[in-house]
Structures are given as structure tokens and as C-alpha cells.
Amino acid sequence: MASSAATRPKPGDVRFAVFSLVHDLDTEAQQDRLLATRSCVARALGPLVPFDHIIFHDGGVPLGRQQEVSALVDTGLTFVDAREYGGFTRVPRLLRPLDKAAIGYRHMCHFMAFDWFDALSRLGYSHAMRVDEDVCINRIDVEALHRAIGDGVVYMYGLETTESHRETVDTLAPWLLTYAESRGIEPTIPPYPSDAMYFSNFFFSAVDWWREQPEVAHFLAAVNATQNVYHHRWGDAPIQTAALRFHASPASVRLLPVDYTHLSTRNEIRGGEEVPFDPPDPEMRRLAQEMHRNASACNGTNALANCSDGGARTHRAHQPERAGRCGGQHPRRADPVPSAARRRGGVARRHRR
Ligand SMILES: Nc1nc2c(ncn2[C@@H]2O[C@H](COP(=O)(O)OP(=O)(O)O)[C@@H](O)[C@H]2O)c(=O)[nH]1
Ligand SMILES: [Mg+2]
Fold first, then answer.
1. Best mutation site among 30, 61, 108 for ligand 1, i.e. most ligand atoms within 8 A of its Cβ?
2. Residue 347: what pLDDT?
3. Pocket test for ligand 1, best of 79, 105, 266 (most atoms within 8 A of CB)
4. Is residue 110 pLDDT above 70, yes or no?
5. Is the pLDDT confidence value at 108 over 90?
6. Is residue 188's pLDDT more than 50?
7. Could you write out the three-class secondary structure of the chain?
């Protein structure tokens, strides 16, 4: 069932994108975060790993803002409207009312489960690394990355964690069992179902595995058809994990030695383990404090209610609060140059690739 050979690039075939999805970049905090985390990835990968920064958005980033922000990064950023690739468009008839932020979160999960690989493949990329706009890579084993590409690896993750979104645990596992039974699937990476999942705010993957393996495409289409990303808020991480555990060969899924900071749920990942949150990068520390303050400031508002529903809280350890949802409540900035970039004289530019 599994095939890693099919995804092995021919020499010279590798086109590598580091991608992220952003809100409207309307606020200083959002822009600072994106610039700082793009700096982290460029610094960590270094000059010997050529890649393009692809920034998906939902139509909310006007061209002028794209140009302003892109100009602050040495290599530039390529903004891509996710709606052109099936993202952020259709909301099914909902079983219960959801507010805008909760729907936005589900659109994000939908895009990151079903659409990202098609978009990147059509844009001409063979390999991609998802690095969310709130993820700072502090260290990455570039040699392991090179080896993986050479070996035709399908997927590399930074952390295996635990799904703790109750509704997903209760509804996805039975669905997966029924699906596997109806298709006669023996998971290639057992045990499955299980509430262990790859933490998908960071991963590296061969793009075409997701669209060209018929069994994978069938599985993703079947999950999508349930519309349970919207009804039950099934996240992209457990869906992606299930696809891999059902259909990827064990040798083609590897841990990538990487240390990173994830802001929205305050996670510190070191070499495949989660450790107490303590960002080594000073700019990440500042942004984390700002998000923390902001979350406290909007405590009790709708924004915080969205946090528990929109609910990125899909895993257990080290996440005392949900800070990210209130980010959109920063006042609109008048000065187009993000403060962090001003302070650092254009931090992104310093880390030339
Ligand atoms: N355009 C858009 N992007 C979103 C939305 N919700 C989340 N994202 C993006 O999806 C990624 C994950 O979102 P985040 O809030 O960090 O979720 P968490 O990591 O699960 O806590 C980030 O890169 C966000 O910018 C949304 O409603 N609209
Ligand atoms: Mg996040």
C-alpha cells in the first residue's frame, strides 16, 4: 500500500517551500510574528538549503500590505490566496452556530488537512516544510533533512503529541475504525486508532505523496466528505497522522531533530520532546509575553470564548492558556513598518540565505 519510491525526486527535482498561513496581517503583532518566525527559519536552515517562503492567506491581506511585509525579508515572501486552491470558501450547513473565529479556525484545519499539498504541487514544489507564523525554529538538523530527501522520505515531524480535543477523540477514532474495516486497511504504522498524533504546526513532507497515492487521496476525500472538520472540529493533525499511519511505510516517516518554539499554545519542542516553555530567542520571548498580556487583557471576551472552541488546544502538555485568538484585537497600526523590524533594523534582512 505504501510507497516511498514514488515520491523520490529525481536529482535536481527538489523545489522546496517553507509555508505558513496567516490572518490579515492587519496588526503590528501579526506582522512582527511573521517576520520574526521567517527570520528563525532562514537562520536555522542556513545558506545551503535553498527555499521559497510561501505565505497563504484567506484573501484578507491586501496587495500593498503583502508588498510592505515582503520587502522586509531578504528573499521576499510569496503571498498566495488560499481560496484559489479550495481554502476558506465553502462552509457546510452547520449543525450548531459558530462565530467567525471558530469558522476561520475550521477553515484553517480544512486547508491544512486537504488543500495545502495541492496548492504547493501546482505552484511547482516537490517538498514543503510547514512552519506556522507562530513557530520559531531554533535549531534543525539540516543533514537529516538532506538525507531524508535523498531517501525519498514522505514525512518528518518534530513532535508526537496527544490529541485531547474531546469531541475529536470521541468521534474520529470510531470513524477511522469503520473506514479501515470497510477498506480492509491494516495500518502500516500501528497502533491505530490512537490519540497520538504528529504536531502539525511544524512538519516536512514530500508534497505529491498526498495527492498521487490513490489510497491517500481516497482517505482524505472520505474524511472531507464527512464535513466533520466543521461539525466536530477535527483538526488537521489527527487527519494527517491517520493518513500516514494507514498508508506510509514506517521507514518513510521519521522524526526530524528540531528545536522550536510554538507561541499560540506555548510549546517548547527539543529533539522530539516537549519541555517547559522557555523560548531561547529573545524576540520570541517578547512576543510570547505580549500574547500572554493580550490574552489576559481580553479574558472573558468573545475572543477568549473562541479560544476554547476554535480550540487549538489539541494536545496536553504545557499549555496553560490559549493566547492566540485575541491577536486580532490589536489596534490597527498606522506605521506600516513592524516594530520588531524597526527595532532590529529589519531583522529578517539580517539572516541572509
Ligand atoms: N487566515 C486564517 N488563518 C488562520 C486562522 N486561524 C488560524 N490560522 C493560521 O493557522 C495557523 C495555526 O493557527 P493557530 O491559531 O496558531 O492554531 P494552533 O497552533 O492550533 O493554536 C497559524 O499559522 C494561523 O495564522 C483563520 O481564521 N484565518
Ligand atoms: Mg499555533
1. 108
2. 42
3. 105
4. yes
5. yes
6. yes
7. CCCCHHHCCCCCCCCEEEEEEECCCCCHHHHHHHHHHHHHHHHHHCCCCCCEEEEEECCCCCHHHHHHHHCCCCCCCEEEEHHHHCCCCCCCCCCCCCCHHHHHHHHHHHHHHHHHHHHHHHCCCCEEEEECCCEEEEEECHHHHHHHHHHCCCEEECCEEECCCHHHHHHHHHHHHHHHHHHCCCCCCCCCCCCEEECCCEEEEECCHHHHCHHHHHHHHHHHHHCHHHHCCCCHHHHHHHHHHHHCCHHHEEECCEEEEECCCCEEEECCEEECCCCCCHHHHHHHHHHHHHHHHCCCCHHHHHHHHHCCCCCCCCCCCCCHHHHHHCCCCCCCCCHHHHHCCCHHHHCCC
- Per-residue pLDDT, 13: 82
Name the residue with the closest Cα to ligand 1, atom 7: 105
Q: Closest ligand 1 atom, CA of 58? A: 1
The residue contributing the CA closest to ligand 1 atom 2 is 23
Determine the pLDDT at residue 307.
38
User: pTM for the whole thing?
Assistant: 0.87
The ranges assigned to domains in the chain are: 13-329+338-343
- CATH superfamily for 13-329+338-343 is Spore Coat Polysaccharide Biosynthesis Protein SpsA; Chain A (3.90.550.10)
Q: How much distance in Å is there from the Cα of 182 to the middle of ligand 1?
A: 33
Chain segment 285-300, per-residue pLDDT in tens: 999 999 988 888 765 4
pLDDT tens for 203-233 read 999 999 999 999 999 999 999 999 999 999 9
Task: Verify whether ligand 1 is closer than 6 Å to residue 58 (CB atom).
Answer: yes
